[in-house]
Each structure stands twice: as structure tokens, then as C-alpha cells.
Amino acid sequence: FLSAPPPGASGSLLGGNQHPGVMERLGLGPGICHAHNPSLVYGRMTGWGQSGPLAQTVGHDINYIATSGVLHAIGRADGVPTVPLNLVGDFGAGGMLLIAGVLAALTRARGNGQGCVVDAAMVDGALAMLAPILGRWQAGQWRDQRESNLFDGGAHFYTTYPTADSKAVAVGAIEPRFYAALLRGLGLSEAGLPAQHDESAWPAMRQRLAALFAIHDQAHWCRVFEGTEACVSPVLSLAELPEHPHFQARANFGERDGVLHVRPAPRFSEASWM
Hey, is 149 helix, strand or coil? Predict the structure, then answer.
């Protein structure tokens, strides 16, 4: 939790809570803290939230995104859901939204001196991030089946393809002119092909594009699509990241004491690092 001092005052208080009741057992619950400082912004990040039948249940990122429906939507159609690292629940739905909530609450508290409790539950955050997909599903624009939709690998122009060297490229050619550039790079003509958004043709088109990408290695396709609007990118390994020209030009990585560090994001014009 972070304190927001009244106007004219200064100081902060740092702490945290990973499980409901921990801070209360330490005598540092929000009620006690707010009694000492009504402008305090008290942030709590948990998996299940402070209430509900699962509030006291143990869990990890994978459990929270599974229960919130996010995990069900990720992966191949012919298998079980794919674990998307622990970035969705722990960092996106949890940490990032906690930061956003605390900053918003601090802004208000510094204006009127009124603090609050920010309850950042990973299941809440995951559901909030899933809201656009839920909206499409309710409107009949999204199938509740993996690899059947625009953004889940179902579309042949928004997915990944293996290359001849056992690497992969990512394709995101959604807009018509981007799609046209993709076809040109692959040596295909739109004439005689199904319409881009003819979903019944997507499986066959995925197979056709997969066969073409499998002919050459990743470096070949990078050369073919460099400078075009096809939205084709190499799928880089961790070891390849520091050597990529874009990251080198932006100084995304720096070394200190023999350890490689990633530059913080977002960037501020007045800030420096390393």
C-alpha cells in the first residue's frame, strides 16, 4: 500500500498483501491504517479477491486464468489449452491493474485527502481483459472454440507458421492492403482465392500458407517481407533478442555486473537508466 499525504505534507508507506488476512494478522489492516492516515491508498493484490467462496483458496496464475475463461481460449483446437507463461494473471491482470488502480487512487487522494482500498484480484483483472471477447461472443461474432476466430489462430492471416529451419514467423495481416502484401510475398494472387474473411475457407488457407512458409527458412521470409506492409515478423528466441537491430537501436538491453537487464517501460523523457 502507498500513502498519499495530505496537500502540503510528504512521506510514503510501502507494504503489500498476497493473501487475504495476512496484513490484518500483523495488525496492519486497512481499517487500522486509515485510522492513522485517512488519505492512505491501500493496495491489495490476490488471486481470488477479498470475498467470495474461493477467497481463501490457494492458487497460482494458471488457476486464476483457467477459472476466468481466458485459458480456455488459448491453444490449438485439437488439444488442451496452452499455458501462456504466467504473464496474463500475475503481471497483466494482477500487477499492472494494481498499479493502475493505486495511481488513480493516489491522484484522487492528493486532491481531496480521501484514501481507499484498491482490491486487485487476478480473476477480476482477467475477466476485465476478456471483456472484448465476451462481447464478441454474445454478439455472435466469436465461437467458443479454440482456433475458430480472428485472434486465436483461426484466421490464416493472423497466426504463426513453422519455417524450414524449425523456427517460425508470425503473421498479422488483418487490413486488406496488409493481406494483399502478404499474398504478394508468398507469390499468390487474390484472383481465384476465397475472400479474406470467408471463415469457411480459413482452414484450407492455413494449410496452403503453411506449405509455402515451410519451403524456406525464417531468414528468407524476413528478407522477402522486409519493408513491406505484410505484418510478418520472426518469432525470436530469448537468446536472439539482445542482437535484434531494433532492440539495439532503442537500447532495450543493458548489462550490469555481467547480467543482462531489460530497460524499464514505459519510458519517460526525463528518466535515464543503467
Answer: coil
